[in-house]
Each structure stands twice: as C-alpha cells, then as structure tokens.
User: Which sequence fits this backbone?
C-alpha cells in the first residue's frame, strides 16, 4: 500500500508529538530489532525510530531496510530520526488510525460572511485615517 502525500502529511502531524521508541545502534539491524519493530507496529501502527551516531547506517538506509523487513511504509526521514507506518490487524477498527482518502476533504468550519464582504472600504488604502494629536493639558501647579 503506497501512501499519498496527504496521508503522509497526516501521519507526520501525528508523529510530531510522539517519542522515539526504537533505536538503531552500532549492531545495526538484526533479528531482535526487527522483531521489536514488528511488535511495535502491530501495537501502535505509527512508530518513530532513531539512528544513533555510532551506527554504521544512515537514517535513510535504516528506514529503507526496515520497511522491507517489516512490510511497512516510510512516512518521514529527518536527520537521525525516521517514522514508519503499517496498518495493524490486532487493533479494533474503531481505534485504528483513519487515513485521509483521495476523495475525502478536511472539514473546515464555515466562516460567517458579513454584509460588507467584497465592497470597497471608505478609508484610504495603505494608511488609516489621519489622527489628530491629543490635546495636552498643562499640569503646572
């Protein structure tokens, strides 16, 4: 399942507040790491990972390799962090992440229109009406 750009944007927004739950270290990608990621994807659907500085892989390389091994989709790669998504089969449908579909649009609240919408203003363009300086009171006692 290939994600559309709108779906990726939606998932990036959800992942923005998430904490990193998986780290790729100097051992690289092994069976234990893949098993942990597979379990995390099944439990959460959306997982944020990090590649440590001492790892031999870049974040993009680790993301691509883990996507193949876990049958997940890459959402985002920034610096040393990356986000993966895969729909879960153990989570009930009502608790799963609902992705935006191609025909679905975001709901926007209607803004009430005023009677003057679309009419020209009587004020000069650029600056507001000239103001007179306030009269000063002489406060000498």
Assistant:
């Amino acid at each position: 399942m290939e994600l559309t750009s709108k779906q990726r944007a939606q998932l990036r927004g959800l992942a923005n507040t998430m904490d990193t739950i998986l780290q790729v270290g100097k051992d690289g990608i092994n069976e234990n790491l893949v098993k942990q990621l597979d379990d995390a994807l099944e439990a959460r659907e959306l997982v944020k990972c990090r590649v440590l500085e001492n790892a031999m892989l870049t974040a993009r390389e680790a993301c691509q390799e883990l996507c193949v091994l876990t049958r997940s989709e890459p959402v985002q790669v920034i610096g040393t962090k990356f986000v993966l998504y895969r729909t879960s089969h153990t989570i009930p449908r009502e608790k799963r992440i609902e992705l935006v579909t191609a025909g679905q649009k975001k709901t926007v609240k209607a803004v009430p229109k005023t009677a003057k919408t679309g009419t020209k203003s009587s004020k000069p363009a650029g600056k507001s009406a000239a103001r007179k300086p306030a009269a000063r009171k002489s406060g000498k006692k």
